């Protein structure tokens, strides 16, 4: 039986120490050193969650561990193999019951307000974006350009003026008239619906 002091002196072997050879462990270390930043960046780009991306990358290297000698000795892209494994792990995770929150007893863990909560409908956002595009196409090209720079690209009035090559006052004026035009078109459409 080990005491805390002896456990610190002789820690339990990790995955690298359990490998078949020191060479295999060294190969895994070199694989991780060379490819882990790319694997984590790839996973993070897809998942938009750094911590989850690191977990997925760790799982990808665990899957590569038994195959390090073959991966390092054969021709082909090691990074390609790792990125494919990473992508497959992300797909598996998105299809899992955890991602869908299909866990036994989840209903008891949620409060009443959480159970009654509905998810937003994707069709509504598509319809809204189509209506927005139609409204924007109803503006003059000059007004549309200013609105896009200010709201879509999130530029300031001064940045918009510099990018378009017009005075700041002209940007403010076009912005004002564009918003008035959009408001009047929206109110006309509301009257037609009623």
Poorly predicted ranges = 1-23, 105-115
User: DSSP strand (E) fraction?
Assistant: under 5%
Shape: elongated
Main beta sheet: strand number and arrangement? none
Topology:
Blueprint: H1 4-9, H2 22-47, H3 50-64, H4 68-73, H5 78-95, H6 97-100, H7 106-109, H8 112-116, H9 122-137, H10 141-152, H11 157-164, H12 168-193
Helix pairs in contact: 2-3, 2-5, 3-5, 10-12, 11-12
Structure description:
With 194 residues, the chain is mainly alpha-helical. The protein has helices at 4-9, 22-47, 50-64, 68-73, 78-95, 97-100, 106-109, 112-116, 122-137, 141-152, 157-164, 168-193. The model is unreliable at 1-23 and 105-115 (pLDDT under 50).
Question: Which short descriptors sum up this protein?
Answer:
194 residues, 12 helices, mainly alpha, disordered N terminus, elongated
Summary, kept brief:
By secondary structure, this protein is mainly alpha-helical. 75% of the residues lie in helices and 0% in strands. The protein is elongated.
């Amino acid at each position: 039986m080990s005491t805390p002091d002896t456990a610190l002196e002789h820690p339990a072997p990790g995955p690298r120490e359990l490998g078949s050879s020191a060479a295999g462990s060294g190969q895994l270390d070199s694989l991780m050193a060379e490819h882990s930043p790319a694997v984590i960046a790839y996973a993070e780009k897809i998942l938009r969650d750094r911590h989850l991306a690191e977990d997925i990358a760790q799982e990808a290297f665990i899957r590569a561990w038994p195959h390090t000698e073959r991966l390092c000795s054969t021709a082909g892209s090691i990074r390609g193999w790792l990125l494919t494994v990473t992508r497959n792990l992300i797909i598996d995770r998105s299809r899992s019951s955890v991602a869908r929150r299909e866990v036994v007893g989840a209903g008891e863990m949620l409060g009443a307000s959480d159970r009654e909560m509905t998810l937003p409908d994707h069709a509504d956002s598509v319809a809204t974006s189509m209506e927005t595009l139609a409204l924007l196409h109803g503006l003059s090209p000059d007004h549309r350009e200013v609105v896009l720079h200010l709201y879509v690209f999130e530029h300031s009035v001064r940045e918009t003026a510099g990018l378009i090559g017009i005075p700041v006052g002209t940007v403010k004026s076009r912005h004002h008239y564009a918003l008035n035009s959009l408001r009047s078109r929206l109110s006309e459409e509301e009257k037609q619906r009623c």
